[in-house]
Structure formats: C-alpha cells, structure tokens
Write a structure and sequence with these properties.
Length: 222
C-alpha cells in the first residue's frame, strides 16, 4: 500500500505535465488573429462568417469614426463617421487572411459606394481595415482580383486600423436569438425577423447576381 501511495502523486504530476505540454503544442500550432471588415448590416456579415471553418468568434460593432463608444442609434443617425463592422477572430493556420478577404468581397456588393443592398448611407459602406503593410498588400491584391473577376471597379476601400467598439448586446448573434420582438411583420423571434429582413433587403439576390456560383454564402440561400 505504501508503494502505491508513493507512485500515485508522481503519476498525477506526470499526467499534468503531459497535459500542459499538449496544450502548449496546440497553442503553438494556432495563429490567432483578428480582422475588421464592413459589409453593410453587421448581423449579416456576422451570420456569414460564423459558418466559416477557422473562424473562432465574430462580434458586431462599429469602427472608423470619431465618436468613442457610439450607440447603434448614434451611428445610424449619422455624423459619427462610424461604419457597421464586424471583428473576426480567426486561426490563420486554418483560414489565411487572403482567403478570408476573398470570401468577404464575394459576400457583398463591392461596386456600391453608397451603402449595401436596402441599407443606404455612409454607415453601411464597405471597407477593409488593416493593421500592417502586409495586410494592406494582401487586401489590395484581393480587391484587384475581385475587379478582374467582375470586370468592373471595386469601390471598397482599404483603411488603416481604427478602434473597434462592440455594438450593444442585443445585436450580437441576432440571427440565432429566440427572443421575441415586435417587427413590421408582427411579433417574431429575432432569428425569424433576421431571415425576413435579409430576404426583403435583397442581399442574397444581389450577391448571386454579381458573383454567381462564386458567392460563398448566398449561392444556396433563399
């Protein structure tokens, strides 16, 4: 019995050490980064990118303006300079930055400078925010590739990184929420209201019109 009791703590120590080593190895194998993009309604961009392999988290918010910690009402009212954006946290070993931007540009109408789909005005414009010269080079290459694919000018700008401000909690994962709200269609769960909004706004129809089978999220949408 004493011999067993002597070895038990040693086995536990070894097991903990192995677990920590494996955890460290997994962390080393990942390359966790963030990307901020503006693609019109942030509910839609969040819903699209949370399906992508390699994406860890998507948060709806605002960036690019001069007002700190803006509210949604302030941004849509105008005058803040902010765009509706999402912050995408991703594993670059699974989803390289150039692939992320390829998907992004084909999920929006990058030829529209005045908003996106039914949402009009500066706060709904598209943009790619970059933090390094290498990200800018990749973004500009992605835009040039999109222009070649479309055969027309892409107006989505590449902008320097700006502070990101998360939107209010009720905007996060809107497309998944079972909370019932009053809409123009009557009382609906947020998830249902989101589907009705997206269809009525014509987002997927326009993206399919532009990109055809290259549209990563709209090709099979209703």
């Amino acid at each position: 019995m004493r011999r067993f009791q002597t070895w038990k703590p040693l086995a536990l120590t070894v097991a903990i050490a192995v677990a920590l080593l494996l955890q460290h190895s997994r962390a080393q194998a990942q390359d966790i980064r963030t990307a901020v993009v503006a693609g019109g309604c942030f509910w839609c961009v969040e819903a699209d990118f949370e399906r992508v392999a390699g994406v860890i988290e998507v948060v709806s918010g605002f960036a690019g303006g001069s007002v700190p910690n803006p509210s949604y009402r302030q941004v849509v009212a105008g005058g803040t300079g902010h765009l509706e954006v999402v912050e995408i946290t991703y594993d670059a070993t699974r989803l390289p930055y150039d692939r992320l931007l390829h998907l992004f540009l084909r999920s929006v109408d990058p030829t529209d400078a005045d908003g996106q789909f039914c949402d009009r005005g500066p706060s709904y414009a598209t943009a790619i925010f970059v933090t390094t010269p290498e990200e800018r080079r990749i973004a500009e290459t992605a835009i040039a590739e999109a222009e070649r694919a479309l055969g027309r000018d892409v107006v989505t700008p590449v902008r320097d990184a700006a502070p990101f401000y998360p939107a209010e909690a009720y905007h996060q994962d809107y497309y998944l929420s079972d909370e019932v709200i009053l809409t123009r269609f009557g009382p609906r769960r947020k998830s249902v209201a989101y589907d009705l909004y997206r269809q009525a706004c014509g987002r997927d129809a326009r993206v399919r019109e532009l990109w055809g089978d290259a549209a990563p999220f709209a090709s099979s949408a209703g």
